[in-house]
Amino acid sequence: MKKEDIIQPQNLVMKKPDLMNDTIMHYCPGCSHGVVHKLIAEIIEEMGLAEKTIGICPVGCAVFAYRYLDIDWQEAAHGRAPAVATACKRLWNDRLVFTYQGDGDLACIGACETIHALNRGEKITIIFINNAIYGMTGGQMAPTTLVGMKTSTCPYGRDPQLHGYPLNITDLATHLEGTAFVSRQSVHNVTAIRKAKAAIRKAFTNSMKGIGSNLVEIVSTCSTGWKKTPLEANKWMEENLFNFYQLGDLKDTTK
Amino acid sequence: MKDNRECYLMKGNEAIAHAAIRCGCDGYFGYPITPQSEVLETLSLLKPWETTGMVVLQAESEVAAINMLYGGGASGKRVMTSSSSPGVALMQEGISYMTAVEIPAVIVNVQRGGPGLGTIQPGQADYFQATIGGGNGDYNTLVLAPASVQDMADFVDLAFNLAFKYRNPTFILSDGVIGQMMEQVYLPPFKPRRTEEEIGKECPWAANGYKLRQRKPNLFSSLEMDPRTMEQRNIKLQEKYALMRSTEQRSSEFMCEDAEYLFIAFGSVSRCAEEAVTILRKKGHKVGLLRPITLWPFPEDRLNSILPTVKKILVCEMNAGQMINDVKLAINCQRPVCHYGRTGGVVPTPEELLESMLQIIEGKD
Question: CB A51 to CB B212 under 8 A?
């Protein structure tokens, strides 16, 4: 059997989504961002929403998210993506409006906008990449950094007496009346990726149906910031982050 | 001839709200602050979402409100906010971002006295902030200064048209007097909001997904890693500001034809100055008033054209001396320029301005 015989549409099991272009990603090896980008592109394509989508990107590692997905994007100021998305969705009811934010952007400088957009029940989806560290600026302490975890601004480990406690903002979001669907997932293996895709798809579907606000956290790796190999990072995430940030659908009002 | 215009008696803040609905505004996003809360209150009472479909939302902060304008403007919609001095200070980051990626929007500042929390009484101390740019980077915003409730009603549509003409945020820099006082006002006729197709045609640059398959994706990002590319973006912006500067200067005059002594005042203070001119003229003094309607661009061309007869200039403002800098720059210091200012929320009376001008006329300045 020749190679050409195998490369046939009926044998296709994996395909790069059309909305994803060939720009070389700036993300580090082992980073979770690329996988989540691909999932978003796949879902928008599967739902036929390319001409109905407005993406809002953050300040942080995903500041360049717009380079990789061929949809309309608005780059928000640090932390303000939920406010930007609020206006877009209210002014364009039939659009899919989503934000894509890291932990520093969403849970620290943008905590106010995040909480209020979710609590108002804005018909948007917030994709929350939580790697417990500031990646873009070089590995500083994030609001989500675990107690004892070492970063460049808590080099002796996060000490609650000095730095306060990690903020579990996704758990907080489950208590807000405006949220319809709150889920925490990861993308470190195939099973996790499939679950994450289902969660994002559910959030996007809710957003299009006008059901509440939707938050999907992806507990992610930052091998560079954590100073680990990609494999070590995956293992460290499973053994440490998953204890504090437990995976699963945390709230679903549509059930 | 019968006058078919709709005439009302209302506050400047209420006129802003009515005018917004009537000029096809798509969305208002604001946060309560004295002395401008009537804008949001009036809109909430009028429920335009049930008639024109206009969105009205009370934001969680001025920071959120300006970023809502960022999103709405970038998607091609006519969006506006209103606030007062401390609130507008919070918006500066967003305004800088909007100018960087050329997002049209209208921002109303009903100024109060500062600095800090200041007072809820009228002020004009945000002149520098509005005309020079209170955010980071080299940028300018168009600034319209209403002097009456009628101006408040008329400037909303004008501000939107300028904002979209230049793809730039446009300020209506009002003050607590104009916002709070009631006057007769003719409201503009209703203009329908644009359809999706009309927005698609007028704003092919907008990020809203419209006909994405037939074009390149639209992106709004002020981030540029290569300094040379960033400089090129700056040069392009500066060319636009130069065009605005040469095209959009607006002003009005009162008894300037033979004026030897010239008041220059904007907003509510120009009303006091007009009264002072009337009284001084009756006393035989050749006094006039130039009222800048655009504070940026400053109406330097008009000022220079009336300058030949002018001996001295008195700039009157509710601040410690801000517009006076633009006056001196505009005439390249060819005439003596004096200043009379009240601060902290104190509104000058026509008598004060008159006395100040008399001192100048009598050479006691």
Answer: yes
Q: Tell me which of A20, A21, A72 to substitute to probe the interface with B (most B C-beta atoms closer than 10 Å).
A: A72
User: Is residue B45 over pLDDT 90?
Assistant: yes
Size of interface A-B (CB pairs under 8 A): 131
pLDDT at B200: 97
Domain ranges of chain A: 26-252
CA distance A192 to B264: 69
pLDDT per residue as tens digits for the range B316-345: 999 999 999 999 999 999 999 999 999 999
d(CA B267, CA B30): 23
Q: Using pLDDT thresholds of 50, 70 and 90, give the confidence band for residue A151.
A: very high
Residues of A in contact with B101 (CB under 8 A): 75
Q: Which tens digits make up the pLDDT trace of B224-244?
A: 999 999 999 999 999 999 999
Chain A residues touching B29 at Cβ < 8 A: 87
Q: Which domains does chain B have, with CATH numbers?
A: 6-196 (3.40.50.970), 252-361 (3.40.50.920)
CATH architecture of the domain with range A26-252: 3-Layer(aba) Sandwich (3.40)
- Token readout for B165 is 């003409």
Interchain proximity B27–A91, CB inside 8 Å: yes
Instruction: Tell how strand A96-102 and strand A72-75 pair up.
Output: unpaired
Of A112, A113, A48, which Cα lies nearest the Cα of A85?
A113
